[in-house]
Amino acid sequence: MLFLGIGATIGLWALGIPLFLPFGIIAGLFEIIPYFGSIVGTFLPALVALTISPLKLGFVLVLFLVLNQLDAHIVQPIVMGKQVHLHTVNDSPPS
Fold it and tell me: Is residue 43 part of a domain?
């Protein structure tokens, strides 16, 4: 949640989307809902970006796609592995 919230806030700020801080907080909070949270967290910033230009909409959608992929494939396995004391796929097994 923290990774996605901070990443969304910084990314939306860099893209020049108004209300980037509330949108980043909302995106981070909605990440707690499995499957649909990331879609709901993307909807409002995408809608605002569409009112600015279709190109901004594309950038916002790509931003959230990249953030969600990084979160799902890098951040979550590392955090989960540390919490349950399991090795991630990239780590070698203990000797």
Answer: yes
User: Which residues fall within 8 angstroms of residue 28, CB to CB, at 6 or more apart?
Assistant: 1, 2, 4, 5, 6, 8, 41
Which range of residues forms the domain containing residue 17? 2-84
Q: What angle do CA 35, 41, 47 make, to 5 degrees?
A: 125
Is the distance from CB of 61 to CB of 43 less than 8 angstroms? no
pTM reported for the whole predicted model: 0.83
Q: How many structural domains comprise the chain? A: 1
Q: Is the pLDDT of residue 56 over 70?
A: yes
Place of tokens 């949270």: 37
Does the pLDDT at position 93 exceed 60? Answer: no
